[in-house]
Amino acid sequence: MLKLELDIDLIMLLCSIVLASIIVLFLFIDIQYFVRSIFVLVWGRIFELRKKPDELTTIYGLCTTSDLDIIFKHMNNARYVRELDFARFHFYDRTGIYKAIIGKKGNILQSACIIRYRRTIPLFTMYKITTKIVYWDEKSVYLEQQFISLKDNFIKAVVFSKQGVVGVNASEIINDLLKKEDSYRPEKTEELEHFISCLDASSMRLRKKDE
Ligand SMILES: *[C@@H]1O[C@H](CO)[C@@H](O)[C@H](O)[C@H]1NC(C)=O
């Protein structure tokens, strides 16, 4: 009888420790962020083929209750940008760009993004996020990403982003993976030209201020 009581106490203690650890973990770490990142990478590695750097990559998502905005109807603005991270990790892994950069002791960092919200993503909407490289130079990679509703194929949001590549020559790495000649660059679209000049203007203005 006494032994049984002791055992129950021990079990209760262990359960409390596990529960407390889980609570602490959730308080200090955005667990879902890491779980989703790992999930898209592992899923890609098991079920998807490798892509060339200039091919489109796709991940899928669903607007859940934890994505909602203050009026509890649509995905909130910040969530879109969070989802883009997963799509980018997946893109860099599938295309082998990340491995090539890290292999040469370089690194890649998001340095700018512009997002145009075209239509809301209501609760329980299934969508896909496509990612495609649109331009690159020695120091940067430019991506276009789109949120597309699965039901009607409507492009809900479109995003351009710039990633700074440090420690290695980005152009060399991408052209190498594409088996293109060293000087190859894709054509810039008009939007991309404006995006790049907007970033340059912003950089110039802040630089003047810092001086
Ligand atoms: C980067 O690589 C390209 C070849 O893809 C070359 O033309 C260029 O000079 C290199 N730039 C630097 C800074 O090494």
UniProtKB/TrEMBL annotation:
Alphabetic keyword roster: Membrane, Transmembrane, Transmembrane helix
Keyword Membrane: yes
Keyword Membrane: yes
Any one Pfam family match given in the protein's UniProt record, by short name: 4HBT_2
InterPro entries attached to this UniProt entry: HotDog_dom_sf, THEM6_lcsJ_thioesterase
Transmembrane intervals: 6-29
SUPFAM superfamilies given in the database record: Thioesterase/thiol ester dehydrase-isomerase
Alphabetized PANTHER family for the sequence: PROTEIN THEM6, PTHR12475
Record family assignment: Belongs to the THEM6 family.
Annotated protein name in UniProt: Protein THEM6
Organism: Pyrocoelia pectoralis
